[in-house]
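tool_call: predict_structure(chain=1)
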Amino acid sequence: MPNIYLPENHMMELKKKYYNDDEFSKKLLEEREQDIIGISNDINMVNTIFSDLGKLVVEQQESIDDIENNINNSKTKTEDGVNQLEKASNYQRSCNKCNLYILFSMIIILIVIILVVTIH
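tool_result:
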């Protein structure tokens, strides 16, 4: 019987314990089966860990996507706000010019009225 997955000293212990080759083979197969079951359980545990990790990555990706969308919306709204402030500034300048024209017109009309009244 070849020595597969078992150390030499363990094989010797099994041979001493079981004199019969059939019993030895049976015990060897049982130990291999237990080792295979343990490896299978370990693989299932690793699979579960990777599944959980995959779920966490998906959940975090959704959060990252939300953050990215919020940043893009903030940028767009900030640009819109800057455009509105520029329009308001231009409107205010034009209103100030109109107010100056009206003021100068009123002063000229007032001077004309004073001149007309003083001449008569």
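agent: Residues 8-85 form one domain. Proceeding to next step.
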